[in-house]
């Protein structure tokens, strides 16, 4: 093929591509930067996430802390909440009139998120920029797909991964083979054989205080092989069930009905009292 024919073919393809964009994609109203919201994250007390064909997730802030309140009750992951609220700070370089929403795939949104009083609906992907169309405040915007990552999560992904709440300070542990109790500022083990040092006991308690699971799940049938009881400084008692499942150790909080999944290495630190790593 001659060079002239190559040039003509390239021009024809370019014209065809431009015609496709003009015909199928709407033109923006303008191209200046637009903030999607004027709401302040600190003023938000409730978020509702409504993915298509999946259970709605409701997150509520009480006394400065976030909780999952539907489809189950749990402490919410603080990092995930900050990320969700980041949508309020999103900006877009393109804004479109909210007309013929099917062209943006917003007639049947992938998901909708209501943050406080403002609702955001997520539609299709722009074929050139890979940005997402979002409908809010009576207009359609293009924003980074990063903002959709948290919206697309499973309900349990919003639950806190930390096994114990910040206010749950353990002062007593009861396992099948031993008990560890702190009285008058000192740890005591029963039976007294191979008693740990105070440093080892403190490290053991700290492992529990800061235990961070890889994932959280809602078990339908949990077969426990271990039972552990914790008592906190507040006087509250927490009963746990645990079992090794394949290559992880799973701990079920009976009060929350949620299972926390740990690596086997983390399990050793939470079960082995004497050999605590520095």
What does this structure look like?
The chain is an alpha+beta fold. It folds into 2 domains: 27-155, no CATH class; 170-271, Immunoglobulin-like (Sandwich), CATH 2.60.40. The chain has 5 helices and 19 strands. The chain has helices spanning 3-24, 78-85, 146-149, 198-209, 264-271; strands at residues 34-35, 46-51, 57-62, 65-70, 74-75, 91-92, 95-97, 111-115, 118-125, 132-136, 139-143, 170-174, 179-183, 186-190, 215-217, 226-232, 237-245, 248-253, 258-263. It has a 9-stranded antiparallel sheet with strand order 5-4-3-2-8-9-10-11-7. An 8-stranded antiparallel sheet has the order 14-13-12-16-17-18-19-15. Strand 16 and strand 17 form a beta hairpin. Residues 1-24 have low confidence and may be disordered.
Q: What would the keywords be for this entry?
A:
278 residues, Immunoglobulin-like, eight-stranded antiparallel beta sheet, alpha+beta, 2 domains, nine-stranded antiparallel beta sheet, 19 strands
Number of helices: 5
- Total number of strands: 19
How helical, in percent, are the residues?
A: 10-25%
- Determine the oligomeric state from the structure: single chain
Low-confidence stretches: 1-24
Shape field: elongated
Strand order of the largest sheet: 5-4-3-2-8-9-10-11-7
Structural class: alpha+beta
Number of domains: 2
- β-sheet strand percentage: 25-35%
- The average pLDDT score comes to 89
Rg of Cα set: 27 Å
Distance between the termini: 72 Å
């Amino acid at each position: 093929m001659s060079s002239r024919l190559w040039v003509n073919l390239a021009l024809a393809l370019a014209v065809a591509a431009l015609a496709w964009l003009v015909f199928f994609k709407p033109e923006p109203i303008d191209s200046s930067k637009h903030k999607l919201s004027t709401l302040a994250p600190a003023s938000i007390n409730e978020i509702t996430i409504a993915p298509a064909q999946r259970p709605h997730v409701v997150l509520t802030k009480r006394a400065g802390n976030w909780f999952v309140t539907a489809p189950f009750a749990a402490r919410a992951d603080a990092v995930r909440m900050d990320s969700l609220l980041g949508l309020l700070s999103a900006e877009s370089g393109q804004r479109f009139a909210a007309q013929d929403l099917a062209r943006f795939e917003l007639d049947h949104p992938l998901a909708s998120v209501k943050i406080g009083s403002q609702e955001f609906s997520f539609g299709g992907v722009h074929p050139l920029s890979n940005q997402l169309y979002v409908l809010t405040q009576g207009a359609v915007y293009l924003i980074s797909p990063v903002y959709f990552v948290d919206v697309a999560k499973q309900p349990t992904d919003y639950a806190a991964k930390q096994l114990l709440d910040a206010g749950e300070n353990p002062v007593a542990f009861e396992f099948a083979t031993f008990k560890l109790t702190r009285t008058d500022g000192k740890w005591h083990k029963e039976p007294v054989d191979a008693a740990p040092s105070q440093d080892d006991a403190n490290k053991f308690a700290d492992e529990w205080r800061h235990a961070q699971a890889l994932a959280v799940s809602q078990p339908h049938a949990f077969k426990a092989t271990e039972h552990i009881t914790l008592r906190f400084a507040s006087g509250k008692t927490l009963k746990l069930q645990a079992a090794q499942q394949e290559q992880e150790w799973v701990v079920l909080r009976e009060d929350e009905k949620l299972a926390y999944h740990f690596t086997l290495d983390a399990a050793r630190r939470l079960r082995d009292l004497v050999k605590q790593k520095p």
